[in-house]
Amino acid sequence: MALRLEAEGASVLVEVTRGRVVESVHRGRAVAVDGAGETVARLGDDASLTFVRSAAKPHQALSIITEGAAERFSLTDRELAVACGSHNGEAVHTETVLSILTKAGLDASALKCGAHEPYGKGAARALEEKGEKPSAIHNNCSGKHAGMLALSVHLGAPPDSYLRPEHPVQKLILERVAQFSGVPAGEIQFAVDGCGVPAFVLPLRAAALMYARLVATPPEFGEETAAACRRLVSAMLAHPEMVEGDGELDTELMRAGRGRFVSKVGAEGFYAAGILPCERWPRGLGLAAKLEDGDRNDRARPPAATELLRQLGALNEEDLKGLQKFARAVVKNNRGEDVGEVRPGFSLL
Asked: What is the pLDDT of residues 298-344, one digit of tens each?
């Protein structure tokens, strides 16, 4: 019998209006945890389980640095950023992924993430115009997979089975997820992600803690791990275009935040962010949110994420001026008239 990831007390995160009437709502959960593990704010049940999906990518990339693969293959910050990202499949992304593979002595045929059309409309159109079909390198997860392959080569482990849970690369990743989430490795459930690697199931609060510890690493984790976290966070902030793509939520939020936080979406309506230590949050802050309906058309996550960051002080009113398409989307009818909006509908603090 399948495990149902049900949550008690889900809150309204986003409202969809038509005229002055709320026509639909998107319910979900959210929690913010500081670097000491203290819960700062929550909406709904933060103990209920959820798949972290692609929001786990920075933690999946940590061992590339701590095990020495990044140094051995002279990986750049741009390459580390794409290993943490869910990219649009544009040339800048695919070329960077190929660079990682080349440095590790591999090529695109080693990728086992599967192929899909690039998420970027321009990239998809360019492929179509050339009469070419998408390949694995256009997969939004190909950066993560290239990083795993580089680590596999560095460890002397067979690269053709790097997806398997029993592979040394996946064992290292599970150890890191357990360390940062505070959930023992033996208690972490997983299934198969869209790209073939393990997808972890965690309490929402544990996912937020992962991000709090990413941006404010506990001293007991050791300087090597702390330095790896700083390098990955720095890479994501320096190259937000590699984490998703121009005009996309993660990229534009980090640009607007100007170094204050890292942002990472996950499939099925998941969102996570890590707010770096600051005057308001001296111990840093981890944020995790989950839309219960999966938000398959991605209309609810942008306003929810933007508003969560605003209420936590990571975005100010000046920052929001460039984020209006995410903060409140306009609902249009078939005549092109504005008839409503998609807006946040919650108070976190």
From this structure: 999 999 999 999 999 999 999 999 999 999 999 999 999 999 999 99
To which residue do tokens 């935040």 refer? 257
Alpha carbons 173 and 185: distance in angstroms, whole number: 10
Q: In what order do the strands lie in the sheet with 189-192?
A: 49-51, 198-203, 189-192
Q: Is 289 left (phi over 0), alpha (psi -120 to 50) or beta?
A: beta
Structure tokens at 132: 């070419």
**What pLDDT, on a 0 to 100 scale, did the predictor assign at position 349?**
81
First-to-last alpha carbon distance for the chain, in angstroms, is 38
Q: Name residue 17's beta-bridge partners.
A: 22
- pLDDT per residue over 87-102, tens digit each? 999 999 999 999 999 9
Do residues 77 and 234 touch, judged by C-beta distance below 8 A? yes
Measured distance CA(7)–CA(123) in Å, rounded:
38
Question: From CA 144, how far away is CA 173, in angstroms rounded?
Answer: 12
Cβ atoms of 120 and 36 within 8 Å: the answer is no
